[in-house]
């Protein structure tokens, strides 16, 4: 298991990553809009819409970061951690609604012959080259953050992206990756239009940018939808919690463990335990307090621990466990 006490605070670096992306996208969006007006290129117009959407998205991510860090209160006793996922889900919607749909529109308009005359594309090439440099800077920061966090978690790069409960940097990385690929597509659309004299290539480039943005929106939407529904904690944490509880002298049997991610680096643990029959009520109470403290000390992600003393041979409880995990998983409740 990773040493949980050495985990860095991700919030400041996530904020830096988003701010860097915001500055880059704002400058790029303005430049692309000017270039799209000057050149009349559909691909450039699609890329301008892409950068406008990305600029708007970084603002949403900043709002999500700020609001999700509010402390728990009476109305929200588990805190506001999941609000980050709502704002990041809105980012996925914005990528599709503001970027992809406009790119499709521009591409189709060009393909059916409703495009204007394209001027000298030199301005477009210059803007795209500058955008590549700026997007690359933002992309490297997001990549550096994710790689560092993956090493801290002792996970591979893709495994970390699948498991992370902090989607902000992932959102920026996917946005910037799409932006870099989109710039290459816009380069190709401009170049092929100039070489062949046919605007079809420009339209195809715009449609391809729309497809790319749709794919990014779907991936981001899936990640945040799972987090909003409530995913299990890192399997390594679950396994360690089970081992620690099972090794406690007061515990006869670990009947069931439920975990749920309630925010970035915040986990809720519910454990149903069969305590030894010889214990008094006071012994059980003290054991529950001690075990909860030990689990939080071992894993700083664990925010709340609920322990329920239960008999392991209760038939209704057994059926509920089997319904969730299957016969093999439910076998742990057998006497």
Automatic annotation (TrEMBL):
What the entry lists under Gene3D superfamilies is as follows: Cation efflux protein transmembrane domain
Q: Where is the Cation efflux protein transmembrane domain?
A: 18-228
The residue ranges crossing the membrane are 16-38, 85-105, 125-143, 172-192, 204-223
What domain of life does the UniProt record list for this protein's source? Answer: Bacteria
Return the Pfam families for the record: Cation_efflux
Q: Does the keyword ATP-binding apply?
A: no
Membrane topology type, per the record?
A: Multi-pass membrane protein
Query: Which key words tag this protein in UniProt?
Result: Membrane, Transmembrane, Transmembrane helix, Transport
Q: Report the subcellular localization.
A: Membrane
Question: Which PANTHER family does the record associate with it?
Answer: HUEL-CATION TRANSPORTER, PROTON-COUPLED ZINC ANTIPORTER SLC30A9, MITOCHONDRIAL
This chain belongs to the protein called Cation diffusion facilitator family transporter
Provide the species name: Actinomadura parmotrematis
The lineage, from the top, is: Bacteria, Bacillati, Actinomycetota, Actinomycetes, Streptosporangiales
């Amino acid at each position: 298991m990773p040493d949980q006490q050495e985990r860095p605070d991700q919030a400041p670096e996530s904020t830096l990553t988003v701010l860097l992306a915001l500055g880059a996208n704002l400058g790029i969006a303005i430049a692309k809009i000017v270039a799209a007006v000057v050149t009349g290129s559909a691909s450039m117009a699609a890329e301008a819409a892409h950068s406008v959407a990305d600029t708007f998205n970084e603002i949403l991510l900043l709002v999500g970061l700020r609001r999700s860090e509010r402390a728990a209160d009476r109305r929200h006793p588990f805190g506001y951690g999941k609000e980050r996922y709502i704002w990041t889900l809105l980012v996925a919607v914005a990528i599709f609604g503001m970027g992809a749909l406009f790119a499709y529109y521009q591409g189709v308009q060009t393909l059916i012959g409703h495009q204007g005359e394209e001027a000298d594309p030199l301005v477009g090439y210059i803007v795209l080259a500058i955008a590549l440099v700026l997007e690359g800077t933002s992309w490297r920061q997001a990549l550096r953050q994710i790689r560092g966090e993956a090493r801290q978690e002792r996970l591979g790069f893709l495994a970390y992206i699948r498991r992370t409960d902090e989607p902000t940097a992932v959102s920026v990385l996917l946005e910037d990756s799409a932006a870099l690929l989109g710039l290459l597509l816009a380069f190709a659309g401009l170049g092929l239009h100039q070489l062949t004299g046919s605007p079809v290539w420009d339209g195809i480039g715009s449609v391809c940018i729309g497809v790319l943005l749709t794919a990014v929106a779907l991936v981001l939407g899936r990640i945040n939808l799972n987090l909003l529904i409530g995913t299990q904690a890192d399997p390594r944490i679950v396994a360690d919690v089970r081992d620690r509880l099972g090794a406690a002298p007061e515990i006869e049997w670990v009947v069931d463990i439920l975990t749920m991610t309630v925010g970035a680096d915040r986990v809720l643990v519910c454990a149903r335990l069969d305590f030894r029959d010889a214990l008094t009520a006071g012994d059980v109470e003290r054991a529950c307090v001690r075990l909860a403290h030990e689990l939080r000390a071992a894993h700083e992600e664990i925010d709340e621990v609920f322990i329920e003393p239960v008999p392991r041979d209760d038939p209704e409880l057994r059926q509920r466990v089997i319904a969730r995990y299957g016969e093999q998983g439910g076998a742990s409740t057998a006497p």
